[in-house]
Amino acid sequence: MxxxxxxxxxxxxxxxxxxxxxxxxxxxxxKVWHQGEGGAEIISFVxxxxxxxxxxxxxxxxxxxxxxxxxxxxxxxxxxxxxGEGVEPDAQVSAGTVLEAVxxxxxxxxxxxxLEHFRAVLRLAAQKLPVVGLDPxxxxxxxxxxxxxxxxxPEELASSAPASRGRQGWVPWALGAAAAAAGxxxxxxxx
Length: 191
Prior knowledge:
The chain is α+β, with helices and mostly antiparallel strands. The chain has one domain (about 5-135). The chain is built from six helices and eight strands.
């Protein structure tokens, strides 16, 4: 693993939930904040049933955003005070930023369902990252991240979406979708 990704992994070990910053949201949900060293922050928007509906990972001036039923997006923070609204989206998802966020979340060793969820969905999103233009460290990180995910077809992935998205509703989807990444990893390894 390159020094760059190891550094983000070390920062992941510093992530802590800031419970005093939890905020109620309209509809009975809440906003959950995790903060770490080096300006690393994770913000999770949680529905009334306890399931994450949106998660944002801030790494210095970059952000990775996962939202239910939408592709992962990346961008640059243009206004720190606007949190989430002061973001200029990237024209194309930045593979490096997604992989840095995965490394950050893999560095977290605690037990936190929101961070575990974000790590799982970003690992799954990594399988859709374009490999063209990745530097050797990013390509190695991508192979490592997707290596143990089993292969599934896009049709199997679509049919595995949970009917209800309760507290653990993402688990069946994540397990089914995890399979697709292994197929990509096998393909990448054979190249």
